[in-house]
């Protein structure tokens, strides 16, 4: 190998101006046996790089593991079949939602109809006979009037105070 | 993308992904897990992959993101950067012409590069170890092309100085 050329390449290498091919050339040169003494200190660097390339590698077992995983993956969702299955799942989702809505609707309707059939005692008539109804109403009104009168008696007592107060005010005004 | 294409185009990249993940995580098992996760991710996204201009850089970028996520999720655990995996002197990489002194120096270089700022370390890894172009590195790290160059320049300069120091004083 041309030593001048190596010298040149090395200078370019330190300046980061070498191409990948030139760097490969340098690597080959320094990994060969005949490295001149003046470059003995630089050779280990390129040998180190070479070693790094050789040492850090994965064994064949690794390939097998990865390929086994990939094959396992490949089997489950294989192409067109996967699409059909996915479509089926989507349809199932839609169907499930529809089913829920229909059932809910059914129960709501049931509830509504039940309520409609039942008689509301506050709105519908309770007595058939008008006389009976009259008596019942009278009874109810009497109850109200009785309680009302009871209340008025109490209020009359308060009225006494009121009168007294007004009298005082009158005397004060005089 | 078929499984065959996956095997021929994606799987061979695994070692690069692994080394890159290892740079972040500094744990071999974690890095292995990350690469596995990345490959599964790539497989899941295989439909859009034919439009990608650079699949490898894309994989690297995913690796970076997954690694960073993993780091975030367990940031408390930070292991010593000089753990196993960087012990260059051992293993079958021993070649006849490699002297003990040489491997010592390589170890020093390794720990020096480990100690570089994160960006510089990543850039030098991607460029000098994995051999990516500037454009690819800027894609992978999602930084500006100039940033890539600046970081690489600084990293190489630092490495050069450290090499001279090792040589002059025998210190790392």
From TrEMBL, chain A:
This is Pyruvate ferredoxin oxidoreductase. The lineage of its organism: Bacteria, Pseudomonadati, Bacteroidota, Cytophagia, Cytophagales. It comes from Fulvivirga kasyanovii.
From TrEMBL, chain B:
It holds the Pfam family Sigma70_r2. SUPFAM superfamilies: Sigma2 domain of RNA polymerase sigma factors, Sigma3 and sigma4 domains of RNA polymerase sigma factors. It comes from the Bacteria. Residues 109-158 form the RNA polymerase sigma factor 70 region 4 type domain. InterPro entries: RNA_pol_sigma-70-like, RNA_pol_sigma-70_dom, RNA_pol_sigma70_r2, RNA_pol_sigma70_r4_t2, RNA_pol_sigma_r2, RNA_pol_sigma_r3/r4-like, WH-like_DNA-bd_sf. This is RNA polymerase sigma factor. Keywords: DNA-binding, Sigma factor, Transcription, Transcription regulation. Residues 14-74 form the RNA polymerase sigma-70 region domain. It comes from Fulvivirga kasyanovii. The keyword Phosphoprotein does not apply. Belongs to the sigma-70 factor family. ECF subfamily. The keyword Transcription applies.
């Amino acid at each position: 190998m041309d030593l001048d050329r190596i010298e040149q390449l090395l200078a370019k290498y330190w300046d980061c101006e070498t191409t990948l091919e030139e760097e490969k050339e340098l690597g080959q040169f320094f990994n060969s046996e005949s490295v001149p003494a003046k470059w003995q200190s630089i050779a280990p660097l390129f040998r180190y790089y070479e070693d790094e390339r050789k040492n850090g590698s994965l064994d064949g077992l690794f390939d097998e593991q990865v390929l086994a995983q990939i094959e396992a993956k490949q089997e489950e969702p294989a192409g067109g079949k996967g699409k059909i299955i996915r479509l089926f799942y989507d349809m199932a989702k839609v169907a499930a939602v529809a089913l829920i809505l229909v059932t809910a609707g059914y129960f709501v309707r049931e509830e509504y109809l039940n309520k409609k059939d039942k008689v509301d005692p506050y709105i519908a008539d309770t007595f058939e006979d008008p006389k009976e109804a009259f008596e019942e109403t009278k009874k109810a009104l009497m109850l109200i009037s009785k309680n009302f009168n009871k209340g008025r008696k109490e209020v009359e007592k308060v009225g006494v105070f009121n009168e007294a107060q007004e009298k005082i005010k009158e005397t004060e005004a005089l | 993308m078929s499984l065959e294409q996956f095997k021929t185009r994606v799987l061979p990249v695994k070692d690069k992904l692994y080394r890159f993940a290892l740079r972040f995580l500094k744990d071999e098992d974690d890095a292995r897990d990350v690469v596995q996760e990345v490959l599964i991710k790539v497989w899941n996204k295989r439909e859009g992959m034919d439009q990608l201009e650079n699949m490898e850089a894309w994989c690297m970028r995913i690796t970076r993101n997954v690694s960073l996520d993993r780091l975030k999720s367990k940031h408390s655990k930070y292991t010593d950067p000089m753990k196993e995996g960087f012990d260059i002197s051992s293993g079958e990489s021993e070649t006849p012409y490699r002297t003990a002194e040489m491997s010592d120096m390589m170890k020093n270089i390794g720990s020096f590069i480990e100690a570089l700022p994160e960006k510089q370390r990543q850039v030098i890894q991607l460029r000098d170890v994995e051999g990516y172009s500037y454009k690819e590195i800027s894609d992978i790290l999602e930084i500006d092309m100039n940033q890539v160059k600046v970081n690489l320049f600084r990293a190489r300069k630092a490495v050069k100085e450290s090499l001279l120091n090792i040589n002059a004083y025998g210190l790392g």
